Fold this protein.
Amino acid sequence: MEKPTEVFAAVFLLVIGLSHVAQPRAWVEFFVWLRGKGHAGVFVNGFLSLGFGSFIVAFHNVWNGLPVILTLLGWGKC
């Protein structure tokens, strides 16, 4: 199950990264909007990270070699 998780993470991170480059103002507006929501905005941001991180933690438990970077990223997002 590690390979599909790696593909998922690669596509997810690529799309998010490209959207940051292509539409930086939209991201600024999004995070300003979240900040304006106070604690509720913090929860929304946390839940977005938790969803991605928990998926990686559940399906990518690799602790050796280069793939360990993805595992650590998943644990860091949880």
Helices lie at 2-22, 24-36, 39-59, 68-77. The longest helix spans residues 2-22. The radius of gyration is 14 Å.
